[in-house]
Amino acid sequence: MTTPPSAATTGSLLLDAEALYAELLRGVRTLCEAHTRLVGIASGGVWLAQRLQADLGLDGSVGVLSSALHRDDFAQRGMASSAQTQLAFDVNGADILVLDDVLHTGRTVRAVLNELYDYGRPARVRLAVLVERNGRELPIQADFAAAKVALSPTQSLALARTDSGSFHFHVQEV
Ligand SMILES: O=c1cc[nH]c(=O)[nH]1
């Protein structure tokens, strides 16, 4: 794991997601092989996967994984999202790099892994994220995180797009 040389890791409450993206691109280049398939977790990981796919010059469309059907709180919340999984390739034997904006408890990653395995048995699955924050509740970790941020349990990270099209993370009290 690496830490970007930007204000994003200095405790600033405003993280420059574009700087983090540049760092993520650098890390993903080291993880990707020609046959690697990029798959974004809906919704925050999909724009990442699409930008990476374009910036890496990879052919085809990225995959999308929805956690909706496998959430462990499905019984209480029902369908928390209308996003649908789209995997236009054979998952069996595939080398898959899952992308998300923030890794927090690990529950969403657990849910999308269950979803992924409904489609087949990949050869390998790895995870890259823009931001890894504290608060893991499952034995899940990222293979690459552009930044690590320590927040209190009452805080969350929200991604916002500015009028100029750049992205920022804001720390919010929940
Ligand atoms: O399964 C899940 C996924 C995200 N958040 C949860 O609380 N549960």
Entry summary:
This protein is an alpha/beta fold and 174 residues long. It contains 4 helices and 8 strands, in the order βαβαβαβαββββ.
Description:
By secondary structure, the chain is an alpha/beta fold. The protein has one domain: Rossmann fold (3-Layer(aba) Sandwich). It has four helices and eight strands. Strands 3-2-4-5-6 form a five-stranded parallel beta sheet. A three-stranded antiparallel beta sheet has the order 1-8-7. Strand 7 and strand 8 form a beta hairpin. The protein starts with 13 loop residues before the first strand and ends with a strand. The N terminus is likely disordered. Uracil binds next to helix 4. The site of uracil has 7 residues, from helix 4. Keywords: Glycosyltransferase, Transferase.
Number of domains: 1
Low-confidence parts, pLDDT < 50 over ≥5 residues? 1-12
Ligand inventory reads: uracil
Strand content: 25-35%
Order the strands across the largest sheet as they lie in space. 3-2-4-5-6
CATH topology: Rossmann fold
Overall average pLDDT: 88
Class of secondary structure makeup: alpha/beta
**Main β sheet profile:** 5 strands, parallel
GO molecular function: glycosyltransferase activity
Domain Phosphoribosyltransferase: 37-143
Organism: Giesbergeria anulus
Keywords: Glycosyltransferase, Transferase
Topology:
Layout lengths: L13 E3 H15 L5 E5 L2 H12 L7 E3 L8 H4 L17 E9 L3 H13 L4 E10 L10 E6 L5 E7 L5 E7 L1
Parallel strand pairs: 2-3, 2-4, 4-5, 5-6
Antiparallel strand pairs: 1-8, 7-8
Uracil (URA) binds next to helix 4.
